[in-house]
Amino acid sequence: MPQMAPISWLTLFFIFSITLISFSIMNYFMISPEAPNPSEKKITSSSLNWKW
């Protein structure tokens, strides 16, 4: 079985790196976050009474 030349290993590395980076970029920009509605924001605060 013949061994692969180092140049083909380098091209394989670049191809896989470029595909990984492109899929990561596409996955990052596909999700559009929704802005939170300020009228629905309810802050509930409960007071804690510590008894030592």
Automatic annotation (TrEMBL):
Residues in coiled coil: none
Keywords, ordered alphabetically: CF(0), Hydrogen ion transport, Ion transport, Membrane, Mitochondrion, Transmembrane, Transmembrane helix, Transport
Spans through the membrane: 7-31
GO MF terms held by the record: proton transmembrane transporter activity
UniProt membrane topology term: Single-pass membrane protein
Compartments in which it is found: Mitochondrion membrane
Keyword Ion transport: yes
Gene Ontology CC annotations of this record: mitochondrial membrane; proton-transporting ATP synthase complex
Superkingdom: Eukaryota
GO annotation, biological process: proton motive force-driven ATP synthesis
Keyword Mitochondrion: yes
InterPro entries: ATP8_metazoa
Subunit record text: F-type ATPases have 2 components, CF(1) - the catalytic core - and CF(0) - the membrane proton channel.
Similarity field: Belongs to the ATPase protein 8 family.
Listed name of the protein: ATP synthase complex subunit 8
Species for this entry: Anabropsis maguanensis
Gene name in the database record: ATP8
